[in-house]
Amino acid sequence: xxxxxxxxxxxxxxxxxxxxxxxxxxxxxxxxxxxxxxxxxxxxxxxxxxxxxxxxxxxxxxxxxxxxxxxxxxxxxxxxxxxxxxxxxxxxxxxxxxxxxxxxxxxxxxxxxxxxxxxxxxxxxxxxxxxxxxxxxxxxxxxxxxxxxxxxxxxxxxxxxxxxxxxxxxxxxxxxxxxxxxxxxxxxxxxxxxxxxxxxxxxxxxxxxxxxxxxxxxxxxxxxxxxxxxxxxxxxxxxxxxxxxxxxxxxxxxxxxxxxxxxxxxxxxxxxxxxxxxxxxxxxxxxxxxxxxxxxxxxxxxxxxxxxxxxxxxxxxxxxxxxxxxxxxxxxxxxxxxxxxxxxxxxxxxxxxxxxxxxxxxxxxxxxxxxxxxxxxx
Length: 378
Prior knowledge:
CATH superfamily of the largest domain: P-loop containing nucleotide triphosphate hydrolases
Helix content: 40-55%
Domain AAA+ ATPase: 99-240
Pfam families: AAA_3, AAA_lid_2
Structural class: alpha/beta
Number of domains: 2
CATH topology of the largest domain: Rossmann fold
Protein name: MoxR family ATPase
Region (Disordered): 1-55
Organism: Hymenobacter tibetensis
């Protein structure tokens, strides 16, 4: 497939919108995609026994995930041309893409947050735009504005950079509250309302945002309502010593890693929509639904929290677990999938009490306690 996007410049201008009628990543080990078991094998029908045939029929109805696995591996291979390590981060980003969710990347400067997001965008054959948030950024700079056309004696809406399938927002916490609020509608409803008219953004639509957790000068705390619209918050950590040695060796050799132009698009919008439909059909046991509800509900009763997670967190856990199971070659969700995603889904949706913060506790510590308190279904 031809390279269609340039993540740094020459961003393609999306078609005009259509008006509507009105890391640290969890410590759980990540199994290799190729070696992951795809679940129990179907039993051979040796006789016309009714019970045996019903079991065979159940297995035969399972979703074929070979296409999804093939595209996921292709994306990983393309990203690995430029970036060293970050396999767990790449898996969680792919999980969010398949689950149709937005991602907030948090980490100190220089750990390849922006680069990773740009690489992921280049592997998708969809419109891409990048926004550098600054304190003087206005909502119209993000959403677009209406321009008066004298020849028509009417106003024409000029869409802003938010009208793309993959939107990278760098340093999202540098924009003031009114600009942050402008993202509420489009992140949740995939539409922008301007002068009483609603305009849809492209499908798929994913926001990848980065922020620095330590720098406070010229930054604004993100509103809880906006944080809740992110499927995951991923903490991007430092590389290991071995990974950093590989980075140094590459630069010392003179090539400094492959250029971004070497990354090609391997997944189209139509294919992504098909894969998302497969993810939605993943099998989930009723007891796992109850497990998710209990985990999220416990955040509202925990003594160390004054703000628990909303039902949107339960939906995020469910959709994320479906996508993660599919990436790992299974057409059914396990409790381990839910546990692996608990911290990325909940860490930005809960608020600790001042006493717990003074004790040095973190949101991840509370999530780990809750996981230990809730009985795991088997």
